[in-house]
Amino acid sequence: MIVAMQENATEEQIDAVIDAMVEAGVNVHRTTGATQSILAGVGPTASLDLRQFELLAGVLYVHRISSPYKLAGRGFRPEGTVVEFGNGVKLGGEQVIVMAGPCSIENRAQIFETAKRVKAAGGSFLRGGAFKPRSSPYAFQGMGIPGLELMREAADAHGLLVVSEVMEISQIEPMLPLVDCFQVGARNMQNFNLLRELGQARKPVLLKRGIAGTIEELLLSSEYILSGGNYDVILCERGIRTYETATRNTMDISAIPVVHKLSHLPIVADPSHGTGRRAMVAPMARAAVAAGADAIIVEVHPNADKAASDAAQTLFLEQFDKLMGELRVIAEAVGRTL
Ligand code: PEP
Ligand code: MN
Hints:
CATH superfamily of the largest domain: Aldolase class I
Strand content: 15-25%
Order of helices and strands: EHEEHEEEEHEHEHEHEHEHEHHEH
Number of strands: 14
Distance between the termini: 42 Å
Bound molecules: phosphoenolpyruvate, manganese (II) ion
Largest sheet: 8 strands, parallel, barrel
Strand order of the largest sheet: 7-8-9-10-11-12-13-14
Number of domains: 2
CATH architecture of the largest domain: Alpha-Beta Barrel
Structural class: alpha/beta
């Protein structure tokens, strides 16, 4: 940490700040310039609320220079994390992985047709919600476990993996045999009890960025899962709430290189929720692959206009086929495969 003192700070004020830092277990190195003193602190600053030093008399500002997360930081695993799934699929390696499927599992015909086409187009995962976090309590809430059983059957029939959202702790156990990867939705990014419990599960977790979550908060949330001993965490950029209203959310493409710099965890891009508009899904998917996303998760449906949820952002299967061809070219251009 760095504490910059005000130009007119007295020796007594500087000593009081040094004492407070030492008391907090921090080693202090003082540099005195012509007009200002700077106090550099080395020690267990990750667990400190640095605002406590900002309150002290004579302090101009306080900066954190080490990351507040330990296990999610790039330094923990400089080579990067590759999450391996049962059938040889590796997420975080050279291949850009594609996850596709409906927003919600609706019925047998829908999920089987989708699975067939996702596989044929080169996808690795079938996505689909059985437990849906809907803004309105009157909107379709998902099929629950019977829906997940259908998706498992469809995925197995076509050699796909399954990713699906878990909304609460009690759903973890019944979902365990039915999914290959748990999805934590944007609304639950800071459901710390759920995250802790997933730290005990021995299944990968796809953690979505909250609607108003900073990248630092996303990484701190991942730390809850990692610190439980579950190192198979995949982060997901799915758009954030900004003042812009032309799109449902603002897709933060820059989060992809930022996460790669700060963390060893792989990052997935979700251009469906990231834009909320069908016409903008493909351009943002292409941009995400160009920016280095390790995977893409996209909503597709055989009858997209009639999807029970998120129809406006759902691609028809033919549009998905076309997008896959484009993504393959872009992946190759940035030294990846797809
Ligand atoms: C979803 O994947 O369908 C979903 C609800 O996503 P998010 O949590 O990002 O809104
Ligand atoms: Mn959705």
